[in-house]
Amino acid sequence: MPAYDTKLQLKAPGLQSGTTSGTPVDLGSIRPNGGQLLQFDLLWSAMGGTTPTMDVIIEESPDQTTWRQVTTFRQLATADNSFTGANANGRKMARFGLVTQRYVRYRTTMSAGGSMNYSLNALGMDAVARGMQTFSF
User: Fold this and answer.
1) Which of 32, 53, 59, 107 is geometrically suited to a Cys-Cys bond with 67, CB 3.0 to 4.6 A?
2) Cα dist. 66→11, 27, 32 in Å?
3) CA dist., res. 33 & res. 91, Å (int)
4) Nearest CA to 5 among 28, 31, 32?
5) What CATH number should be reported for the domain holding residue 70?
């Protein structure tokens, strides 16, 4: 498991029900004509409700007003909660996205009556994906 920078934690572990947008994370000044490749890790341990589904989207913004999609996770559904063996108490899904704006956040859409216990983290990647965080905060 990578060592996550606490400043790149988009959502702390905990239960969520309903649709929401996360608090924007300020990545600081972006280099002109540059960006940062980030690995976004969704870690979940439980889903509740009758046939729950959840969509998770990562967005970026220059001003916290206009948001643009960076990447999206595969929709999570009831079947994704039926892991056994070593994965029985935790599941992980990773997505990559190139962030070119100052702010990043997550947005979720949860089916009516559904809930999920999860966290969402980001990890800065260098050109050879060694897991090095290159933003300056």
Assistant:
1) 59
2) 21, 16, 19
3) 36
4) 28
5) 2.60.120.1110
